[in-house]
Design goal:
Blueprint lengths: L1 H15 L6 H7 L1 H17 L3 H15 L2 E2 L4 E2 L4 E2 L6 E2 L4 E2 L4 E2 L4 E3 L11 E2 L4 E2 L4 E3 L3 E2 L4 E2 L4 E2 L7 E4 L4 E5 L2 E2 L15 H21 L4 H5 L5 H15 L1
Parallel strand pairs: 1-4, 2-5, 3-6, 4-7, 5-8, 6-9, 7-10, 8-11, 9-12, 10-13, 12-14
Antiparallel strand pairs: 14-15, 15-16
Helix pairs in contact: 1-3, 3-4
Length: 241
Amino acid sequence: MLFKRIREDIKVIMERDPAARSFLEVYFLYPGLRAVISHRRAHWLYKRGFFFLARWISQRCRKKTGIEIHPAAQIGKGLFIDHGMGVVIGETTVIGDNCTLYQGVTLGGTGKDKGKRHPTIGNNVTIGSGAKVLGPFTVGDNSKIAAGAVVLSEVPPNSTCVGVPARVVKINDVRVASAIADLDQIHIPDPVSTELCRLSLRLERLEKASSMGQSDDLALKPFCTAEDKSEKKGEATDETL
């Protein structure tokens, strides 16, 4: 059973990594595969009560590959850990079939509570380099987590998540409406330009009023601010006194 699973893991890497040239190269030189194989042995021992030996295998693999997988974590078939350095998979993590993790990914917990505190990753999920998935929630099947994202809540199936904290930007390849996403980042209002335009209109109105013999007060009336009106009211009171 173990050797059959190893062959499946190697086949998955050959299919997904264009740099993989041969089965021998993948078996001997890919740290992600070494980590998965070591985990399968450690997990077998952990389920049968050999906790110390399971953790020893896990820590030995961590020193050799830079990938830390708790022996209690449940991992499905076809997991591809690409590059691998800095990957951390916590104790109560569950990973489905045919998932891909890149370097620096953390599948971690929050708080010090016992029991389920790590994420459940569905089938065919891709998690980009440096992404953090923290907490006891589910990342749905066929989802993609962008590099550097920090996921703190449940992700629906067939979704794409980006950002810190992560937000869903696509579901079933359809863009999700968002006030931030819809913000025009190019045509941003310029307050200086707006004020110059207002002054230009005011000057134009003054010139037009002057040519028609109107008083300045009539020309300025549409542009008077509340402060201007207050000052004029004060001047009128002084003249009366």
